[in-house]
Amino acid sequence: MTARRVVVAGAIVADRRLLLAQRSYPPEVAGMWELPGGKAEPGESRESALRRELREELGVEVTVGAALKESVALRHDLVLVALRAHIEDGTPRAVEHRAVRWVDADELRRLHAEGSLVPADTAWVPELLADLAKR
Ligand code: C5P
């Protein structure tokens, strides 16, 4: 059996806005918006992986909270999960992405409707809209 690797993404909500990052590669998804994150290294916890990825990709220090319910099989050996995160230090900037932006519920719905979200991340839209309605 092949070990399953995890891609961990951060759901950062503050002031009723969600942080999205615009991919710069590969060509199929360049220009689309995602929850920022990346692959956990073997032996690395999801929480540590997310803290490391968000430090590298956005230049922020975060604390990590509960997972979103949906997880997405990217391939047979790769699963995508999202963890809620809270920025403790720093202002997000696009280090590896093309851009970052904070979106409210209407903007998230619009990006989803126009097909501008990375396909795998669309599974999280209902849960993210619920979070945006309460925080
Ligand atoms: O960002 P990175 O290229 O390390 O991501 C690894 C894999 O996870 C890629 O296939 C990417 O498209 C996918 N991914 C995703 N949604 C995210 C983050 C990564 O589908 N929010």
Question: How would you explain this protein's 3D organization?
Answer:
This protein is globular. It is an alpha+beta fold and 135 residues long. The protein has 3 helices and 8 strands, in the order ββββαββββαα. The mean pLDDT is 96. The relative contact order is 0.27. Strands 1, 2, 3, 4, 5, 6, 7 and 8 form an 8-stranded mixed β-sheet that branches. It binds cytidine-5'-monophosphate (C5P). Cytidine-5'-monophosphate binds next to strand 1 and strand 4. The site of cytidine-5'-monophosphate has 13 residues, from strand 1 and strand 4.
Give descriptors for this structure.
single chain, binds cytidine-5'-monophosphate, 135 residues, alpha+beta, 3 helices, globular
Pairing-aware structural class of the strands and helices? alpha+beta
Q: For the report, how would you describe the main beta sheet?
A: 8 strands, mixed
Average pLDDT confidence is 96
Rg (CA only): 14 Å
Strand/helix succession: EEEEHEEEEHH
Oligomer: single chain
Ligands (ions, cofactors included): cytidine-5'-monophosphate
Beta-strand content bin: 35-45%
